[in-house]
Each structure stands twice: as structure tokens, then as C-alpha cells.
Amino acid sequence: MKHLNIGLFGFGTVGQGLYDVLKRIDSDNVHIKRICVRDIHKRRSVDADFTDNPDDVFCDKDINLIVELIDDAEAAYDIVKRALKSRIPVVSGNKKMLGHHLIELIDLQEQYNTALLYDASACGSIPVIRNLEEYYDNDLLCSVKGILNGSSNFILSKIFNEHMSYNDALKLAQDLGFAESNPTLDIDGWDSLFKLIIVTMHAFGVYVAPDEIFTYGISTMNDSDIRFAREKERRIKLVAHVEKVDDKLFMCVIPQLISRNKYIYSVEDEFNGVVIKGLFYDKQFMFGRGAGGHPTGSAVLSDITACAYNYRYEYKKRNDSVLPTYTNDHRFRIYFRYKTAEQRDLLTFHQIREQYTSDEYNYIVGDVSLANLKACQEALRTPECFVAAYPFD
Length: 393
Prior knowledge:
CATH topology of the largest domain: Dihydrodipicolinate Reductase, domain 2
Shape: globular
Number of strands: 17
Low-confidence stretches: none
Strand content: 25-35%
Mean pLDDT: 93
CATH superfamily of the largest domain: Dihydrodipicolinate Reductase, domain 2
Helix content: 25-40%
CATH architecture of the largest domain: 2-Layer Sandwich
Number of domains: 2
């Protein structure tokens, strides 16, 4: 195991978490040499070498690992790209940046023979990427599905378990540091989307751009939707899903009405849960904390330790002779709450299984295509509408 001198970018919740974890384990082989932050004048309660100039990190000859933990996706992209071109291994936690630039960064890793690791970006403390790389590196994998965002799951848990209002649950998540002051990335599904893109690359060897995937969150959910779920003895969970059917691949992020017999029904608070399904081994379940500084900082440390042993992703699935083709040509049952006739006409139901009308709101349960949902994605983002997948089992 080689000695690592880290140049750390960012000292927010996760950066502080990593610092605390390293201090607790008191490793002789891993040391944070310098920390680059945006505001050098901000008061911090740690004794470390801070700078606001990236050159102070990249020009330090002692630094042999870059760890990027900032929330600005474009700035993170510049840092990671510069590290790879400088042949300095890099660990990143920025899933938005990875979701948009993954193919280019894979190519840069190969061109400069330098590793980029990002297990911590996908599911917090769950090592899903490395498991997909090493254990599920064959054609037997059918699907990966789960709760990939701890913030939205915390909110939903408080609503269904403690009967909190949506706004109160959101405020509590923000107060505890599980959700940002602007929670859009979490509650509208974008955070889960970027993680799903990363997971899909390692599960199936296919990259799908963010704007091609139907993404819908919980920000328009209201008491009527919660009441419907309770009447059906289900819970609403925000679920990211990729599945291979024959030679086709479909993906989506959507709230789902989850029945009691499903693994993720009982995934509560800021935890994540991932179900991996294979052709012959059926389902395997991975569970762990998906939000918070120390759990995510611990996951970053796992990536750092892997770098110390010269580990790198091989992207084995990309080399398959026949890769699945991405498609939105897939039908499934949904619950759709709406207000106006114009909103009702947004979706074409191939089969209607249940419907309800009133002066206040209406809903339909029926089968629609993923392509239809994708085409109407923006029009459905209104408080008068809510869509949730409604699996049969």
C-alpha cells in the first residue's frame, strides 16, 4: 500500500466527513496535504492547510491523489479533467458531473493511464459500483432497481411513518443536513438520475444521456396521493430503475407505489436500498446509508484506499460484443392524478384499470408507455398532477 498525500477540493458536509473519518482512524498511509475551498476567509474549526487557488494543489509535487468533493458540477469537471491530464489519480463524489461527462472521462482515463474512482457518488455507503464491476461482470444481470437518494427517502419515511406533512418533513431533512436549502436535485429525481446513469454504465456497459431518460420526482405529491397509497396498503418511494429485456434497455426515475413484500418497502430514513436481479440468482439486496457526511466520507475513504492499491475500473461490460439498445418503448401500470381535461389528455392509456373523478381532483390507474411519459415530462411537473408507477406485485 503506497503512501497518499491528498489534495482535497471542497470542505462541505462530505469533505468535513472525510476529514473526521481520517482523523478517527489515524492512518499512517493517508494524509490530507492541502484543502482548496471557495471561501478562504470562512472560519473553520480544523487545523489544516487551506487555499483558494487550485494551482496550489496541482503544483504541489508531494500530492499524488486528488479528491474532489464540491457541489459545482462544471468546476468538478475541470478539476477531474485536469487531474487525469496531469496523470494524478482522482476520486470524485460529483454524480451530476459524472452523469454528463462519463464517456469523456473514461476515454481520458485510458489515454493518460490514470484512475478515476467514484463509488461514493452512486449510493453513499453502498459499494454498488465495485460489486457490479467485479461480481456481476457477466451477461446474467437483468436489472438494477432501488432507492438511490437518501434525502427524498427520509422525507417519504417521515410522511408515511410519522404522518408528517411534506413541508415539515422537507424542513427537518434540511435541518439535519440530509437535504440542501434548494432541494430540487433530490426531490425532483435528478440526483437519482445521475446515479442511475453511472450504475447503468457499470451494469450494462451503456451510457445514456440525462435528457433521454424519463425523470419525475415527489415535489408535486399531495395528501390525495398519500391517502391513495395507504388505501392500497403501499408506500410511495422514489425509485431509479434500469432493466434489460432481450436486447433492449429501459431506464427511468419515478415514484413507485411499493407493496409490503418488496425489499425497498422497509428502507427508511436516509438509507438507500438497491435490488440487483440476475437471470439465475434471482434478487440480491444491498442496503446502507445514502446521505450524511460521515457515511459518504467513509465511502470516499474506500475509494482512496482502492487508489492506494492501484485499483481502477475496467468497464468490462463496454467490451461486450453486443450491447443492449436503449429504448422508451416499454409499458407499465401507473397511478395518475390530474385536475383538468387537458391534463388527462396528456397521457394515452392502453388500458384503464381504475378511475375516480371529483370536483377537487381525479385519478386514473392504467397502462401507459414510457415514451408517452417522457414526451409529456415537463407538462406533468405541476402541483395539479402526480405520476407514480404502480407495479402489479
